[in-house]
Amino acid sequence: MTRPILLDTCAAIWLMADEALSATAVDAIDQASDMRQAIYVSPFTAWEVGLLVARGRLPLAVTPLTWFNALTSQDLVELADLTPEILIASSSLPGTPPNDPADRIIIATARQQGMMVMTRDRLILGYADAGHVGAIAC
């Protein structure tokens, strides 16, 4: 069994928009699907999408809540836990993690729950290259 996938916010947005993903990301999603393994999204992604819409950086045809509910209602997509332990862990990650609070929370979630972060975020990918979290470039 492979490690579960945790979608970074950018990956969730591209997945919902049917944007092209890397072959590696498509293979990971296909493998999870074949194994009926959940693909996770952080509740913090809902906050980040809401913020992007409010700032005019993400145009959606529906409300952010409707969008997020559509994401989490897809087959195999499940909401990851967001616990006080994860939030506290995000404040003291090893090495040199990204400064963005959303990235830190997603990284801490993946670390605490043994997941691979699916992302195009170069800072998260660099953090993964340093060995602090597993990642799949999408």
Quick structural summary:
By secondary structure, the protein is an alpha/beta fold.
Description:
The protein has 138 residues and is of the alpha/beta class. The chain has a domain of 79 residues. Helices cover 49% and strands 12% of the residues.
Which terms would index this structure?
alpha/beta; 138 residues; 12% strand
Q: How much helical structure, as a percent, in the residues?
A: 40-55%
Strand sequence of the main sheet, in spatial order? 3-2-1-4-5
Shape: globular
Percent of residues in beta strands?
5-15%
Distance between the termini: 20 Å
Instruction: Tell me how many strands there are.
Output: 5
Q: Any low-confidence stretches, pLDDT <50, length ≥5?
A: none
Structural class: alpha/beta
Name the average pLDDT: 96
Tally of helical runs: 7
Instruction: Write down the secondary-structure element order.
Output: EHHEHHEHHEHE
Round the Cα radius of gyration to an integer and report it.
14 Å
